[in-house]
Every structure is written in C-alpha cells, then in structure tokens.
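Record 1 of the preview.
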Amino acid sequence: MPAPGLLVIHTEGDRVRGLGHVSRCSAYADEWSHRGGRVLWILDGDETAASLIQPGQEIRVMRWQDDAAEALTDYDAAVTLVDSYTASAGAREAIAAMSGEAVFIDDLWQLWPAGRVVHPAPDRRPAGAPAAHPDSVWLEGPLWHPLRGPFIDLPRRGPTRERIGRVLVVFGGGDLRKVGSTMADLAHAVWPDAAVDLVLGAGQGRPEASPHLTIHQALDAAAMARLMRDADVAISGAGQTIFELARCGTPTVMVGIADNQRANLEHWPRLCGFIDAGLWDGGDLQDRVRNGLIALGPAPIRQDISARAAGIVDGQGVRRTL
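->
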C-alpha cells in the first residue's frame, strides 16, 4: 500500500483552554504516521500541548485561526484536519480550498465548508442547526470518536468486583476548574477502604500526600487506559475522557466543566447509565457526586453499565474515518 501523503492538522490548546482538541487530533496523527504518512501540525498552543505530539511529527506554532497569509499556506496536503472553536469562516474556507480532502471536527453543530464533518457527541442534530454544505458528509455519533491508539484494541474487561476497591478521578490534562482534589477526597469519604487514583496534568500543583491517594501526573494514553480498566468507578469531566471511559467500560459520574459538554451530560445517562452530576459550579456539586457514587455501588448496576458503555464506543473511530 502506498504511503498516504501529508496530513496537516490545524488546532488549538494549552493549559488555559484545555488539551482536548490536541488529544483527539493526535489520534488521527498517530494512525496516519503508523500508515507511513507525514504529519504537520499548525498549532496555536503552548509547550504542554506540543508535548502531546509524537516525535517525528512536524509542528509549527502560530495563531492560524484568522485570515493571516502566513498561517494559510498551501502545504499540498492529502488531507487537512481542522479542530477549532475559534477559526474564522474565511480561514475555514481557505483551508478547505487548499486540501485534497478536508475533515472538520464538530461539537456544536456549526456551519462548515465542503468536506467531511465528524460530530462524535451523542446528541441528535437539532432542528435549528445550520444546513450542511451540499458537498459535506456528516459522520455522527460516538462510533466516530477519535480514540488514541492504546484505546483502539483493548482486551476484554475483567469481571465486575463485588465491592468498590479502586476509584479513578480525572478532569482532563489541566483540570481547568481545579476540582480533582476535592473529588478525590469525596470518593475517599464515600468508600474509605478504596484506593483513589487522581490524574493531574503536567505542571499542575499536587495536593498533600495521604495513604488512600495515589497521584499520577502527565500520563500517556497507555497508562491512562490501564488506570481506567483497573478502576471500579470514575469521577470525570464530561469531555473527551468520557469516550475513553466508555471504551474501557468504566462506570462514571460525570461533572461538566465547559458548556460544550452539555450534550454528554444529557445523553450518556440514557445511552449506558453514566451519571450526570451537573456543572462544576453548582452549589450542590458534592452532594450530587456523592449520590452518584452511592448509586454505582451495587455490582449488578456497574456490570450493566460496563457492558452497555463498551458497546457504544468500539475504538475504531479513527480507522473508520480514514
């Protein structure tokens, strides 16, 4: 099979805005590299975002989302991938016109130029959403979500344990709302005998050490997959991590930390039984999370959620798109 040529990725992310865009774009980049293609990132981001990119993939750091001539260079790409909330309409159109094939990652039912639009959220297209470009193909639903390499081919999850022995707390690469430590303490209060794993981003301050808490920092995807599979339950932000937890079959209490996560909060409970604890700034957040954790205590409930979740995200979204 001939090498697939050049993949150019336009995206954004840092410790302030979050790293979800970079993380999911890396899933396409790594699969493309694995197939023998070149990858060039046009990245509006910081060193933390750049650290998520595999060695051997080129990076050019710049503000590209406006109609700047320098940013909108024609790289003769076989495929161009755009994952951005802030790109101007002019920038989107220019990028699409320069690409052999344009792929856009969509979370908010936006209006995109001609190309393929991946909308992995589980919500249905609302009646008032922009009409798709007549030459666009929309790829909708969790089966299209771009999971990172270690989540693609997973062994079968082990049997559900009768008692909660391990809780995972993860709120993305930067824990933008700084709620991870509070949720870890809450998990310990609900299940004092359980081990609690708290995942923090690179450079993030660490809480004081305690016997029940293990802190993990700047994990790669393989280590994250192992933690998720080992956990009996998780407390998580309701963004990209939810799809990885579903793939691992990990029953989860979701906390929304951004407005674009509302679709996940609304639809994942219906899909598989994940629990919606609402938004991070709700006055009764701890009560809602505590009640969610208690609801996940019985083993038959966790077994049912695990089986349903793993059937919704099969890990093949990147391969399916390519």
